[in-house]
Inverse folding.
């Protein structure tokens, strides 16, 4: 790929990028979130059209108008969010792309089945062709994605953060599998996890803000060197070095059971306790009940059995309103849809939770000037970059939206804070800011439950670390007992002796 | 992107939208061999030429305005009320019930009582789909339509039975209608048939504005409408506000019916709802879901609805053409809104424009 | 008593055809991810066009059967055209489907009424299409009347159910439709043109709605009037939810609702003094009840229903 440029409104997603991959090579494409890795690969697959630049395969220029052209050229991509149709079987999902089986009025599902079996045995990837996708676990879905891509005849594989939903152990298996495949395939591997990059790739290219900032052979550089080039500036994230807090219990969760949307038990007899002035990190592969836990604590999901106690008051099965009134602060997972009302102004979003209080209204009439004063103060205090307080919050960048949410939640002076994936998808500057703030809240004696999938974040900030697996706490470690390896084993569901 | 370009872009899209609407309507007129420009003249200009016509336009604008205000409140709360037709019918029934039950109460008591009854009738009919949506996730689009048909049947059932004029029973013309109401439930008239309902409509517009933009209830209604999930996470009971907004919306539609009875018909007859419920959706959208837009929009659609009644005799175009035009207008509005809010498209046009400018320079 | 029941059941099949065709059409729309609330309007246009052609050919008198079938064909074509227009609005311009559907409904009902007044004038009846007694089978007592003595369109409509199932579950096109309506991003990544698929489904679905309208005017009522459709388009949309997007369950729904509609006829024929209006209300009440208690299981649902697809907007 040479000189690829792609613009989105207000963003230059790819700026004159050139990369190359030889046969049998593994190129690692690394960079922070939002550096433009996925956009670049979508251009390669013909999903986006680049504004400038060209793509060469075996020195011949190609034009992909859509993914079909890319498949024909032998390219295949496993997307970060799996591209599977949940109400169809594995077989049908493969058939969707396997045009050889498309007869005029019939899909030759037997031919697809034969093809799947052939690929499964060749690469040692077993899948059940007749299962519906919604029945499969995340790991199984990923295997289906790989099988699907290989069935379509990919000789050149693009993997977009394939390990983000896997445990460290599953990750190792995948890497071994992929290494085995490099005998036959070329691979582009998108990641921001450096161990994987070191383990798998032969070449590495680093993107930052849509530009290539570095290219070289992986073996010539250490992880530290690559990391430094990735962030571009030396940011040392703050660490929690304070001694163990000995405050009272702030949040006590006592044996709760909560159902998921699918009607299965998302939390099964889950217990955890957080003291005032303590950060407890909840580590785990996403999808093990974290979302349901946060929702249950915040009155957004019914609790079947068990108790949740906030500062001596039972709050399970109370309305979200009651929980907020009891002093709960919440940084939800989906900042765009759960944290803010996108079409509301920054000013309105900052008052969202407290509009009925004395502060912002009297006798049901909103005090507009108080809203404004509050917004001006917080925009300054939290360094929210925006054209003005009347700007629709949804038009801000992810980092600034998160600052709006953080400002609102902190300024309400909560008694406790639940933070779910608070830095997901943010650049390092914003991460640093948010980490500092979280530690400052802790200093002021407020307990925090930090739910995250970034082990670094959890290990940097937490006083104690709990590992969640299939809806239960696997083990709770003190900060100094925790290592990545140990957490990884626990996250995979292996019980320690 | 310059400010000038943004304004020009908006203006161009709106212009294209208007042209598209006119072209589509003309196509239908061409199909029936009518003179399109003369038809537009008859529908949109002719009614403005005589005072009598203008007052007739205003009479139609009053229920449209009241209904559209209610619909806009619901729409802002994230729920599309296309059941105003049925809610209005229930308002008519409640008004008629009170008016016939207490004909001798003094007017300062009876008129407000009957109007409040019409609000309650419509409000209940609006609350049903609201609560069904909140509790059982039933699409309000479907439930309100069904309730329209149910209300229409119920209305004619009542007209034929309990509300039927006793004189009609003896020497009936075959038209089911109620007895004429006593003057104690009449709204006075200003000129011609134009009645003081127009004041009610304007007061309600102010009320809706205050409710939506100045009160905490309105704040929470709008939050539920623009970001239901975030509102729920902020402790706002989204379902409650959806149901409340539907009850308000229904009450407005019911009141529109009450005002219509008190000011214009003064007895319950068939056909009072006159498709106002559906037209109200168009008026609300056309008015930008804001009272300041809905007032002129309701005048404009009152004009079209009245103008269309002139069309059959003057240009041989059936009055149904107004429904065709309303359909086209809805479609054109929502389409144009999507184009206007599409920043990608705007960006692309801007770059093409820059390229052209560069070439010329 | 037996007579009345047989009579009622024998009305069920022919009277259910319009609902059946319209809801199967709507099912294709929704399977592809488009919620077409304009079904009512498409049916009105189909009913008008379908009636116009045999009327114009025979002036209300007897005409060759071919004109009736030309009427059906024209209704399907007009339906497809309206589907195409709805596609431009909701697929290409990505307008919100609910409110755009209301626009299409008003346009269709209004245009049918306008054109009807111009080309036909007042209430005019047409001869319609005759019932065909299937040899031997129609002679079976009870069963024969209920199942085997209907018009040819009724047979065809029911024969279309297995065809629709085959299309949806066995053909490449059906695969594309289901993928486009459930996970358009995935479909796109597999090289499927999501928008084109949605256009195609809209055109097929709306053609079926047009046919459904024509069935009402040509085969069932044998006339056109403003109140001919009276909410059947909306009921058809509700039936798709009720039937969980599966042709067989949708068919079951269509039969159930027709049964409710024929209730008024039974009441009348039994001479019970039951207000006519209440009987007419029954199917509408039933829709609300059914929608309230239909399971909201999302596992097999087209989860992208109502969401416009835009490749370049990342979620």
């Amino acid at each position: 790929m040479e000189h690829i440029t792609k613009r989105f409104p207000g963003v230059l997603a790819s700026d004159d990028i050139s990369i190359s991959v030889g046969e049998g090579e593994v190129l690692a494409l690394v960079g922070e979130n939002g550096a433009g890795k996925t956009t670049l690969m979508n251009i390669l697959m013909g999903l986006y059209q680049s504004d400038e630049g060209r793509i060469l395969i075996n020195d011949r220029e190609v034009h992909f108008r859509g993914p079909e052209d890319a498949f024909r050229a032998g390219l295949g991509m496993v997307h970060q969010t799996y591209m599977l149709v949940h109400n169809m079987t594995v077989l049908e999902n493969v058939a969707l792309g396997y045009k050889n089986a498309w007869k005029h009025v019939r899909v030759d599902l037997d031919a697809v089945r034969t093809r799947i079996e052939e690929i499964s045995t060749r690469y040692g990837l077993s899948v059940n062709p007749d299962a519906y996708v919604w029945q499969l676990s995340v790991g199984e879905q990923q295997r289906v994605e790989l099988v699907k891509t290989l069935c379509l005849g990919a000789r050149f594989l693009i993997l977009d953060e394939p390990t983000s939903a896997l445990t460290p152990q599953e990750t190792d298996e995948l890497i071994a599998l992929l290494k085995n495949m490099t005998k036959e395939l070329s691979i582009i591997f998108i990641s921001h996890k450096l161990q994987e990059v070191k383990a798998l790739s032969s070449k590495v290219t680093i993107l930052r803000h849509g530009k290539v900032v570095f290219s070289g052979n992986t073996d010539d550089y250490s992880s530290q060197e690559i990391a430094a080039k990735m962030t571009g500036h030396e940011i040392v994230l703050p660490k929690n070095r304070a001694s163990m807090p000995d405050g009272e219990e702030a949040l006590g969760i006592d044996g709760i059971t909560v159902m998921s949307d699918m009607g299965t038990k998302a939390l099964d007899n889950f217990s955890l306790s957080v003291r005032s002035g303590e950060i407890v990190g909840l580590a785990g592969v996403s999808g093990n009940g974290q979302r349901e836990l946060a929702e249950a604590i915040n009155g957004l999901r019914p609790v079947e059995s068990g108790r949740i106690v906030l500062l001596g008051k039972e709050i399970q099965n109370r309305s979200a309103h009651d929980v907020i009134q009891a002093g709960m602060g919440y940084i939800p997972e989906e900042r765009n849809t759960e944290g803010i009302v996108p079409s509301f102004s920054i000013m309105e979003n900052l008052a969202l939770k407290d509009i009925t209080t004395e502060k912002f209204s009297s006798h049901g009439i909103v005090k507009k000037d108080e809203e404004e004063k509050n917004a001006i103060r917080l925009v300054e205090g939290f360094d929210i970059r925006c054209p003005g307080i009347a700007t629709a919050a949804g038009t801000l960048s992810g980092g600034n939206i998160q600052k709006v949410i953080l400002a609102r939640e902190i300024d309400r002076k909560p008694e406790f804070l639940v933070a779910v994936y608070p830095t997901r998808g943010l650049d390092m500057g914003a991460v640093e800011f948010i980490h500092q703030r979280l530690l400052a809240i802790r200093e002021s004696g407020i307990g925090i439950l930090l739910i995250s999938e970034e082990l670094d974040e959890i290990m940097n900030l937490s006083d104690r670390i709990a590992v969640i697996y299939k809806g239960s706490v696997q083990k709770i470690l003190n900060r100094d007992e925790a290592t990545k390896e140990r957490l990884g084993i626990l996250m995979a569901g292996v019980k320690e002796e | 992107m310059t400010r000038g370009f943004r304004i020009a872009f908006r203006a161009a899209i709106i212009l294209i939208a208007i042209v598209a609407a006119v072209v589509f309507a003309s196509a239908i007129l061409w199909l029936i061999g009518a003179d399109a420009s003369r038809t537009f003249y008859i529908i949109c200009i002719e009614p403005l030429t005589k005072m009598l016509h203008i007052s007739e336009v205003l009479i139609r604008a009053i229920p449209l305005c009241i209904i559209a205000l209610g619909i806009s409140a619901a729409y802002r709360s994230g729920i599309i009320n296309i059941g105003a037709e049925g809610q209005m019918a229930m308002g008519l029934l409640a008004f008629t019930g009170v008016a016939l039950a207490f004909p001798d109460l003094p007017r300062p008591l009876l008129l407000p009582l009957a109007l409040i009854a019409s609000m309650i009738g419509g409000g209940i009919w609006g609350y049903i789909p609201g609560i069904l949506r909140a509790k059982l996730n039933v699409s309000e689009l479907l439930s309100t339509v069904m309730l329209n048909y149910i209300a229409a049947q119920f209305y004619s059932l009542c007209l034929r039975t309990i509300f039927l004029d006793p004189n009609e029973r003896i020497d009936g013309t075959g038209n089911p209608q109620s007895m004429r109401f006593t003057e104690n439930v009449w709204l006075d008239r200003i000129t011609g048939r134009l009645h003081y309902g127009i004041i009610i409509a304007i007061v309600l517009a102010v009320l809706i504005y205050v409710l939506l933009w100045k009160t905490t209830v309105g704040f929470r209604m709008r939050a539920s409408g623009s970001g239901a999930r975030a509102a729920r996470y902020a402790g706002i009971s989204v379902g409650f506000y959806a149901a409340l907004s539907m009850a308000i919306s229904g009450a407005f539609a019911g009141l529109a019916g009450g005002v219509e009875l008190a000011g214009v018909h003064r007895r319950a007859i068939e056909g009072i709802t006159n498709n106002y419920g559906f037209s109200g959706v168009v008026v609300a959208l056309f008015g930008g879901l804001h009272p300041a837009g809905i007032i002129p929009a309701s005048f404009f659609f009152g004009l079209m609805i009245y103008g269309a009644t002139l069309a059959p005799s003057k240009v041989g175009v059936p009055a149904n053409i107004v429904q065709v035009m309303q359909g086209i207008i809805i479609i054109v509005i929502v389409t144009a809104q999507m184009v206007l809010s599409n920043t990608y498209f705007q960006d692309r046009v801007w770059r093409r424009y820059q390229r052209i400018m560069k070439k010329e320079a | 008593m037996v007579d009345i029941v047989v009579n009622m059941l024998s009305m069920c099949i022919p009277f259910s055809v319009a609902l059946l065709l319209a809801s199967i059409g709507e099912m294709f729309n929704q399977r592809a991810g488009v919620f077409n609330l304009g079904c009512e309007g498409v049916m009105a246009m189909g009913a008008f066009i379908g009636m116009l052609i045999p009327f114009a050919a025979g002036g209300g008198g007897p005409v060759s059967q071919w004109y009736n079938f030309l009427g059906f064909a024209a209704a399907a074509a007009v339906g497809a055209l309206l589907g195409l227009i709805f596609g431009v609005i909701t697929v290409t311009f990505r307008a919100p489907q609910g409110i755009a559907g209301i626009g299409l409904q008003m346009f269709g009902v209004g245009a049918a009424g306008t054109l009807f007044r111009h080309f036909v004038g007042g209430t005019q009846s047409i001869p319609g299409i005759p019932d065909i007694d299937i040899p031997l089978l129609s002679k079976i007592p009870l069963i024969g009347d209920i199942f085997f003595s209907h018009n040819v369109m009724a047979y065809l409509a029911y024969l279309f159910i297995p065809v629709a199932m085959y299309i949806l579950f066995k053909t490449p096109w059906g695969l594309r439709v289901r993928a486009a309506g459930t996970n358009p991003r995935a479909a796109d990544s597999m090289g499927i043109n999501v928008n084109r698929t949605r256009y195609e489904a809209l055109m097929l679905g709306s053609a079926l709605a047009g046919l459904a309208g024509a069935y009402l005017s040509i085969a069932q009522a044998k006339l056109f009037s403003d109140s001919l459709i009276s909410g059947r388009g909306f009921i058809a949309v509700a039936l798709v939810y009720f039937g969980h997007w599966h042709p067989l369950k949708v068919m079951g729904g269509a039969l159930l609702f027709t049964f409710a509609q024929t209730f008024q006829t039974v009441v009348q024929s039994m001479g019970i003094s039951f207000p006519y209006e209440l009987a007419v209300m029954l199917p509408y009440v039933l829709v609300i009840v059914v929608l309230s208690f239909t399971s909201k299981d999302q596992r097999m649902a087209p989860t992208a229903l109502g969401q416009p697809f835009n490749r370049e907007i990342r979620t």
